[in-house]
Structure formats: structure tokens, C-alpha cells
Amino acid sequence: MFTVTKRMEVSGAHFLHLDYESKCTNLHGHNWIITVTVQNDTLDKNGMVVDFSKIKEIVNQFDHHLINDVLGDLNPTAENMAKWICDHIPYCIRVSVQETEGNVATYEK
């Protein structure tokens, strides 16, 4: 079994749609730390599970963007960001999105 992990930091803004009062419903930004893990039994013809640049390409869709626009109809929570990223990267098994120090959301397949 081959496992590859890439950690990146991206800056972006979002506002949440919540059914309670919160300052997070206002436009604000974060420097998210996103960790992506991919895994497969075999390697491709280049000797890789997934090229690191493919992971970077997907994650960078969040960098310096309004996350609400990237996720469309999904509420741009760290949890939804993690699932969306994992769904767009081949062989992805886990994505962690650290929104602030001590606040991390993880999605695992």
C-alpha cells in the first residue's frame, strides 16, 4: 500500500449560512492549513499514486478566493471544504482542514 500526504496553506474568505447568530455569518478570512492523504495499492506508470501537483491544483482553487463561490450550494464550513477536496482528488482517503489553531475538521472515506 502506498500513501502520499501533502500539506498546504491557502488564504481565502468565506461567510457561513447558520441558523443561529454568529459573527461567522459575516465575510471573514482564514489561512487554512489543508492536509491531503491519498492511497493506492499500485503506482501509475510514472511511479506515483497521484502527482503532488494534481493535489496542489485542486487545493489551490481555494487560495485567495471566496470559498462560497468555489463550493457553490454547499455551506463553506471546514467540514464541507474537506469533503469537497477529497471528492475531487483521485485515491483520496483523508483531508484535514485547519481553520484556526486548535480547530480542525477531517473527512475520511
Automatic annotation (TrEMBL):
Its cofactor is Zn(2+). Zn(2+) binds at H14, H28, H30. Keywords: Lyase, Metal-binding, Zinc. The keyword DNA-binding does not apply. It catalyses: 7,8-dihydroneopterin 3'-triphosphate + H2O = 6-carboxy-5,6,7,8-tetrahydropterin + triphosphate + acetaldehyde + 2 H(+). It comes from the Bacteria. GO terms for molecular function: 6-carboxytetrahydropterin synthase activity; metal ion binding. Binds 1 zinc ion per subunit. It is an enzyme of class 4 (lyase). Its EC number is 4.1.2.50. Pathway: Purine metabolism; 7-cyano-7-deazaguanine biosynthesis. The active site is at C24, H64, E99. InterPro entries: 6-PTP_synth/QueD, 6-PTP_synth/QueD_sf. Belongs to the PTPS family. QueD subfamily. This is 6-carboxy-5,6,7,8-tetrahydropterin synthase. It comes from Dialister succinatiphilus YIT 11850. The lineage of its organism: Bacteria, Bacillati, Bacillota, Negativicutes, Veillonellales.
